[in-house]
Amino acid sequence: xxxRQVRTFLAKxxxxxxRAAAVVIVGTLIAIATLVVFIPQGVGPQVALVxxxxxxxxxxWSEWLITRERSKGTFAWLRTLPTDDRALxxxxxxxxxxxxxxxxxxxxxxxxxxxxxPVGTWIxxxxxLLTFGGLAIAAKWRFSWRVGHIGPLLAFAAPLLLFMTVAxxxxxxxxALIALWNAPWGRxxxxxxxxxVYVAIVVITTRWVTRADTVDLVD
Amino acid sequence: xxxxxxxxxxxxxxxxxxxELGPLxxxxxxxxxxxxxxxxxxxxxxxxxxxxxxxxxxSGAVRNRGSVIRWGDPEWKRRFSYIRERPSFYDExxxxxxxxxxxxxxxxxxxxxxxxxVGRFKLPPSQRVGRLSKGTxxxxxxxxxxxxxxxxxxxxxxxxxxxxxARADLQDTVNELVKEHPALCxxxxxxxxxxxxxxxxxxxxxxxxxxxxxxxxDDLKRTVVYCSIAAGAVAPSSDLVLQWTRRNTHWLAxxxxxxxxxxxxxxxxxxxxxxxxxxxxxYHGTEHSHVD
Lengths: 219, 292
What we know:
The complex is a heterodimer.
Chain A: H1 2-38, H2 43-72, H3 74-80, H4 85-111, H5 119-142, H6 145-166, H7 172-182, H8 186-211
Chain B: E1 7-15, E2 20-28, E3 33-37, H1 44-51, E4 59-64, E5 67-68, H2 74-77, E6 80-83, H3 95-106, H4 111-120, H5 134-147, E7 152-156, H6 164-180, E8 185-190, H7 193-197, E9 202-207, E10 210-216, H8 217-230, H9 239-248, H10 259-264, H11 278-284, H12 288-291
Parallel strand pairs in B: 3-8, 3-9, 6-7, 7-8
Antiparallel strand pairs in B: 1-2, 1-4, 4-5, 9-10
């Protein structure tokens, strides 16, 4: 029953957003290709571009999957049907993760193969994107439109700023962190850490959705 | 032994920072049509949201056949259909796709009946829901409600915002469905008595979150006239009472020898006017003591 409902919700989201998502993904790949061909800037900026675009589009997926349903009140209709709130919440995370994995795989394979060498780096960045996408879903569901947009960015900017402050260029801490990163288990540990954060976000959000009044799920 | 009511509210209460509904205790029987009346902000939608598990009660419970309904209970959700004041279907989906989505989520679904009702209500299957009028969206909700064989149909202000023609059309539709499904328990909310007077067998009036009155529709109609005269809210000889009672005399069982009483015995099938007497007083709370 639970998986059937998840499939039904996913099919519904595919019907609602599938075409637009396909256009955005193809358009993004064309845009990256154009930038790479006509404005050659070297490997560094190119891989940064690919990662940043994936990062920003994780926000777009959550905008489609959550904000739109909040503002139109469609969650309120689904809530009157004999649905399992866990299936509803789960389907949103699955849809967001699916789009993130698809775009990340396509864009890095075509334009940023450096991320695949070693594959651990690719996996770490994928788990980072998944965590960010999950956080965006959770924030947009739980908070107002503005907080839902800014919250995930702040949640990622704060640790980054902290890292740059305490482990800036040439510092011993930075060298130590790089050594940990390059250790045989370094990337695995980071990936697992991101996965745990992601699972925690999914569990906490699902729990909140199942307990929330419907008025808290819509604008 | 008396059977448990289909639906029972047991001290149901929901507290908001600026509003409190309840505690409400009342029961709903299968085969009855309940009209929930009250001014805007009286708590009608809150009550319906509590029954349909859209809101958690602060205290009290909702029971189905004696069993407490737990939060999120899918079995309970399978038994009712709730059509909100502004039906929030997916605008991008067509009528057909919306019903397909509902059928997959409900589990029990009579596709033949759904198809028949779509034709009867003249719903355009390929039309996007976003292009439908509010009245047509309510009809779409009714199709879903009947096709999944709901035991309880809840309509929150179904005619609000409709023009008179669409309103009459929708009222006729609801009346027909109620007659065709005599075992269905229906709860209709409105802030306009006219919207429910032809359909409801029982009426309750909510005011400021409290139950101001709970009667059968016939009792209410009698009460309104008797009390309005007895309380002096309207002078017995006033044209207002005479006009109103002439239009509504099939509601009344009148005794007496006065001209008014004779007029009250006139019978009419035309129910058009909202009584501007004690019903209004009950509704707005100005003369409640006279009703008690």
